[in-house]
Each structure stands twice: as C-alpha cells, then as structure tokens.
Design brief:
mainly alpha, two-stranded parallel ribbon, 2 strands, 7% strand, elongated
Length: 113
C-alpha cells in the first residue's frame, strides 16, 4: 500500500484489522464504514422482522441509510428551516435565563435577620 498515494478517505466493510492497518499505512486517511455492511450486520443481529419496537425502529433507520445519495441529503427548504430553528433555539437558550434574572429583585431575595 505504500506505493499507492495516500487517499483522503477509505471505505471498508468494518473488519477488525483493517482500521489498524490503515493507520499504519496511511495515517492521515479517514476511515468510513460501508453503509451496506452496516445494514447487513444490523439485520444479522435483529433480523428483518424484529420482535421489539426498538428493534423495528433501528431496522427502519438502518434501512433508510441505504437511501442516502449524498453526505447531506437535504433540500434547500429543509436546510433553511433547520438553520432558522437552530437560531431560534439558540436565542431562546441565551435570552430565557437573562430574562429570568432581570425579574429577581435584590431587595426581596436578600433578607437580613
């Protein structure tokens, strides 16, 4: 592998020895597990007809992984709404405690006896 130029990313089936060999041969290369092999492993452990609700949900999530066509499979509308939602939540998390603190009266909160 030393004769081959170091790639940016390597996709593998997730075998135990591969990650160690990759770090030794190409230390800067990123390692990604093959989505199909992830699906096969989950299917092997929980079958295609899981008995529990959690197993069924996990199976559907992993099955949906096979439908992803790009690293970010979002429409422009979804992306804009996601950013607006993130901004709104961030603002609430910052302004909410500040508002509560302004409602505290120091004269009432500190009592001298």
């Amino acid at each position: 592998m030393k004769r081959i130029a170091e790639p940016r990313m390597v996709v593998s089936d997730g075998g135990t020895g591969f990650a160690k060999a990759l770090k030794k041969a190409w230390p800067k290369a990123k390692h990604q597990r093959c989505v199909f092999h992830v699906f096969c492993q989950v299917k092997r452990y929980i079958t295609s007809r899981p008995n529990t609700a959690a197993g069924a949900e996990l199976y559907m999530l992993v099955k949906d992984l096979l439908k992803i066509k790009s690293p970010i499979d979002l429409s422009l509308t979804s992306l804009i709404l996601l950013n607006i939602g993130t901004l709104a939540i961030s603002m609430l998390m910052m302004l909410g405690p500040s508002y509560l603190i302004t409602q505290i009266s120091p004269a009432r909160s500190i009592r001298f006896e």
